[in-house]
């Protein structure tokens, strides 16, 4: 088994700055970098720092390709809770030069969602591999929207969200009933094809999941545990989770 690199970066702010800097370095090194991007609360400050770093370093983003992990089914690209809007508001709108043709998120409002999943996976295969994939982790150990018991062989597909995920994400919506019950998500096998993965977690609600990911069995009941099999994963933690998992 390969040991994952785990670093204690004290808190959310320092961790976010680190993750943003790693992305920036990769983008400077390779102007047509393929980035695997994530959303959620975890990445808010990462994108704040990254968009600022892109501007002050005058990085040309015109050739950067991006693939987001997931999107809610039923939400259009201009729906204010969609991950399309999240990405525009948190990152893409802050820099000149992003080429919208090279920014990819699954279309949650596609008329044929099964076909959309096939197309997304195919595009990921054609354009990839992803150079750096960033990941958060769910309290239940999900990565992307690959909920417990997702197959390690899974690729982009329609997934049912668990009550735990619906509940965790409900504070972004007016009420819990408004949270979509399904999403399109890159699969675990799709994620594992990335050349490098950086998983970032902070806050006490993530400590059990991270502890199991690092030290537990490799099992589909904790999807993030598959990362123990990836040769190039960095896990960035706050002090609390780091201490708990060591
Ligand atoms: P969060 O979600 O960043 O909103 O905590 C992370 C995840 O569920 O992967």
TrEMBL record:
Keywords: Carbohydrate metabolism, Hydrolase, Isomerase. Catalyzes the reversible isomerization-deamination of glucosamine 6-phosphate (GlcN6P) to form fructose 6-phosphate (Fru6P) and ammonium ion. Belongs to the glucosamine/galactosamine-6-phosphate isomerase family. NagB subfamily. GO terms for cellular component: cytoplasm. The lineage of its organism: Bacteria, Bacillati, Bacillota, Bacilli, Bacillales. GO terms for molecular function: glucosamine-6-phosphate deaminase activity; identical protein binding; isomerase activity. Its EC number is 3.5.99.6. NCBIfam families: nagB. GO terms for biological process: carbohydrate metabolic process; glucosamine catabolic process; N-acetylglucosamine catabolic process; N-acetylneuraminate catabolic process. Pathway: Amino-sugar metabolism; N-acetylneuraminate degradation; D-fructose 6-phosphate from N-acetylneuraminate: step 5/5. This is Glucosamine-6-phosphate deaminase. InterPro entries: Glc/Gal-6P_isomerase, Glucosamine6P_isomerase, Glucosamine6P_isomerase_CS, NagB/RpiA_transferase-like. The active site is at 70 (proton acceptor), 140 (for ring-opening step), 142 (proton acceptor), 147 (for ring-opening step). Pfam families: Glucosamine_iso. The gene is nagB_2. PROSITE patterns: GLC_GALNAC_ISOMERASE (PS01161). It catalyses: alpha-D-glucosamine 6-phosphate + H2O = beta-D-fructose 6-phosphate + NH4(+). Residues 17-229 form the Glucosamine/galactosamine-6-phosphate isomerase domain.
